[in-house]
Amino acid sequence: MKAKIAEIECVVDCQNTLGEGPVWSSEEQKLYWVDIQKSEVWCYDPETGDTKVWNAPERVVCLAPREGGGFLVAFESGLAFYDLETGKVTKIRNIEADLPSTRMNDGRCDRQGRFVIGGMDESEKADKISNVYRLDKDLSIRKIISGVACANSICFSPDGRVMYFADTPVGEICAYDYDPDAGNLSNKRIFADFADQPGTPDGSIVDAEGGVWNAQWNGHRVVRYRPDGTMDRVFDFPVLNPTCVVFGGKDLDVLYVTTARYLMTPEQIEDEPLSGGVFAMKIGVKGLDEPKFCG
Fold first, then answer.
1. Domains of the chain, with CATH numbers?
2. What is the reported pLDDT for 2?
3. pLDDT digits over 154-183, tens only?
4. Which of 89, 96, 97, 228 is deepest in the core (most CB within 10 A)?
5. Measured CA distances, 196 to 62, 135, 193, 217 (Å)
6. 8 pairs with which residues across the strands?
């Protein structure tokens, strides 16, 4: 598969240490994302080019708009409702408080508006001691995948019946049958194998045609997979670490990509000064309006 050439524009040269978790607000027509290591939430208005930054009380790893307004946020320690303007945090629950080396990492709402969030082990061992959880409308939490080193790529097929997931160090994106009523998983299988890829699977999103877009950490590229798991398009990127992707814009035809300079050497950053920026690209495919959290 040859790399595709597309116009890839750095729209926010924010120099994030670990930019992650982009979400598009259709109501506001704005992009939100986080810088995990700096405990920041960012917002970008494509119409004006303006940006805004909020300092969170702890590391924030991802967020999801709520149906009633505001955000559900995954902090490193667990889940909470978070009012960006007032700074008010309403804690839902700490997660894995008995595992001091883990934190939350990657999450997204399913098509019914439940929030699925996975963690990671930050120790040097990167052990498979974290898990993936589902937060329901009534704010109850259920473990749905056990034994995870670094959860990533959580996203859902257009009909909500397939969940994609990667334990990044394993180097595979897996697909599960997902029960849209109960939110349960079954029939795990390998969707994409990264054995011959330059990077490892980070954040993903599904487009309106069912294609899976993945940011390849340490791989200088973003890749689209067809619903059958075959590689469809490869886009070379000007920075080492694309981290996550989301569709935005009035027609949901802009792919936004967060990136990171985390663990890069000063020499690498000098060679790739846009590392940590947010990029935008038009690739001729439209996305879906991702669900809000239902609780």
1. 3-282 (2.120.10.30)
2. 46
3. 999 999 999 999 999 999 999 999 999 999
4. 96
5. 29, 35, 8, 14
6. 281
User: Quick check: 4 pLDDT over 90?
Assistant: no
- What distance in Å separates the CA atoms of residue 121 and residue 154, rounded to the nearest whole number? 17
Determine the Cα–Cα distance for residues 287 and 198; give it in Å rounded to an integer. 26
pLDDT value at position 6? 64
Tokens of 220: 């200088």
Please tell me the pTM assigned to this model: 0.96
Q: What is the pLDDT of residue 233?
A: 95
Q: Which helix (H) or strand (E) holds 271?
A: helix 266-271
Q: What is the pLDDT of residues 71-118, one digit of tens each?
A: 999 999 999 999 999 999 999 999 999 999 999 999 999 999 999 999
Collapsing DSSP to helix, strand or coil, 228 comes out as coil
Which of 263, 238, 269 lies closest to 36, judged by CA?
263
Give 215-218's long-range contacts (Cβ < 8 A, gap of 24+).
215/242, 215/243, 215/244, 215/245, 215/257, 215/258, 216/242, 217/168, 217/241, 217/242, 217/243
Contact 222, 235 (CB under 8 A): yes
Angstrom distance (rounded) from CA 272 to CA 242: 12
Token pair for residue 160?
């909500």
Closest by CA to 256, choosing from 220, 225, 227, 283, is 283
